[in-house]
Amino acid sequence: MRKQFIIVSALFVGMAVSAQKSEIKTAEKAVKSSDYPAALSALSQAEGLINEANAKKYKAKFLYLKAMATYANGASKDKMSVGEAFKEVISYEKEMGKQKYSTEVEGLLSTLIFDLKETATDFYKEGAKTKDLETFNVAGKGFYEAYLLNPADTSSVDNAAMSYYAGKKYDKSMELYKFLLEKGYTGIYTQFIAKSKETGEVQLFNDEKTMKFQVKVGLVVEPETVVKESRRAGILARIARIHIAKEDNDNALIAIGVAREANPGDYSLLIDEANIYYRKGDTQKFKEKLEEAITLNPTDATLYYNVGVMNLDQKNIEEAIRNFKKAVELKPDYGDAYNNIGAAILQKAEVVVEEMNENSMDFDKYDAIKANKLDPIYREALPFYEKSYELSPSDSVRATLNGIYENLEMEKRVK
Q1: Contact, 39 vs 6, CB < 8 A?
Q2: What angle do CA 307, 312, 315 make, to 5 degrees?
Q3: What is the 3-state secondary structure (H, E, C) of 337-401?
Q4: What single-letter DSSP state applies at residue 187?
Q5: Distance, CA of 160 to CA of 235 (rounded, Å)
Q6: Per-residue pLDDT for 199 more than 60?
């Protein structure tokens, strides 16, 4: 009975192999005739017949035909399924140590990944034009799928994280940026660039050898090797800004501290830090950070203006005036800064007005204080308000000017 059982089992194996072979041939014919649904149907039948005993003989061809049928000569919209099918062929042949289909499939996989990245780039550019958030997120998905099909290409994760950030999917963007940091990603890479001799357009090359060859045969000119800087500091800064976007001020300050350690000269991070302190109501820290930012960028008029505002709020009148004057020195058409110089000067009048009120019954003394103390302050502030009104007219500045003109009895100016 035992021998009889073995013979029957062998017969079933032979039948399975024969059926499998028949289905694979059917699938092959269907692929050649571009009938991809029929090919997938036949392969579905064959798949159930593959087992440990006969897999090696037919599996590579089976996987190849399945990949080609899924690919559908580039018509398939499910790029991930196609890519995974290609990768399965490559992986299996590598495992078996025999490459029959891998060269063709690797080329198709490379083209597929390139197309994914190109399409993602187009979506990102479109998002930048239209400001449509979902367009950015489609780009992020495309870049991430390119990475999944080629895990060595971590720059695609960087692009995906950037796209999701632009699309305001902050949690997804944060997750990818942290993944890059954990992987030790730096973003440092070398670009090989030259200009087409015929069109003058810039061309990128995969390696230096290819670029030099095209220079040698006269196809391109002006070859250049460019080493891109590390992206680590930029990623840390982006993580900080995600916290800012989520209004998570405490974690944002921690993240900014880490990012500034990586890039102490990042002026924009200092501004971000200053703004967080402002939102938290810590005006002293806000002012300190702005002053620190001035040391990094001493030609930014807005910084001097904002420090001037803080000094004005803290009644540091002369310091505020110096800051506002520096702002207009750097930006001569800074109407608001001229206005605030006038406002700072007028704050000096508060003490004088109090003195006048105390002597309101002594008309001679009252008039003397006005003529000798108050009017000079008005005359000092006047040209700055006039310049402010000239550069950026507003009802509030006009009202202040009228008040000064009336106090100085400049009736023609009032009219």
Answers
A1: no
A2: 130
A3: HHHHHHHHHHHCHHHHHHHHHHCCCCHHHHHHHHHHHHHHHHHHHHHHHHHHHHHCCCHHHHHHH
A4: -
A5: 12
A6: yes
Domain residue extents for the chain: 2-112, 190-227, 307-415
For residue 311, what are its two tokens? 């000094």
For residues 352 and 377, the answer to whether their CB atoms sit within 8 Å is yes
Alpha-carbon dihedral of residues 237, 239, 245, 250, nearest 10 degrees? Answer: -90
DSSP one-letter string for 81-107: HHHHHHHHHHHHHHHHT--SSHHHHHH
Q: What is the distance between the alpha carbons of residues 34 and 54, in angstroms, rounded to a whole number?
A: 28
Residue 7 pLDDT: 42
307-415 in CATH: which number?
1.25.40.10
| pLDDT, tens only, 91-114 | 888 888 888 888 888 888 888 888
Q: With cut-offs at 50, 70 and 90, classify the pLDDT of residue 6.
A: very low
Euclidean distance between CA atoms 254 and 137, whole angstroms: 27
Distance separating alpha carbons of residues 222 and 414, to the nearest angstrom? 67
Residue 129, amino acid:
K
Measured between its terminal Cα atoms, the distance across the chain in Å is 125
Whole-angstrom distance, CA of residue 131 vs CA of residue 125: 10
Measured between alpha carbons, how far is 123 from 167 in angstroms, rounded to an integer? 11
Are 180 and 158 in contact by the 8 Å Cβ rule? The answer is yes
Task: Answer for the pair 93, 118: CB distance below 8 angstroms, yes or no.
Answer: no
- DSSP character at residue 266: -
Mean pLDDT of the chain: 86
Edge-to-edge strand order for the sheet containing 202-205?
202-205, 190-196, 220-227
Partners of 194 in beta bridges: 203
CA-wise closest residue to 148 among 56, 237, 80: 80
The rounded distance, in Å, linking the Cα atoms of 118 and 149 is: 15
**How many Cβ atoms sit within 10 Å of the Cβ of residue 155?**
18
| E-strand stretches of 62-172 | none
**DSSP percent split of the chain into helix, strand, coil, nearest 5:** 75, 5, 20
SS3 at position 202: strand
Using DSSP bridges, classify how beta strands 202-205 and 220-227 pair: parallel, antiparallel or unpaired.
unpaired
Contact in structure between 121 and 160 (CB atoms under 8 Å) = no
Q: Rounded distance, CA 322 to CA 102, Å?
A: 72
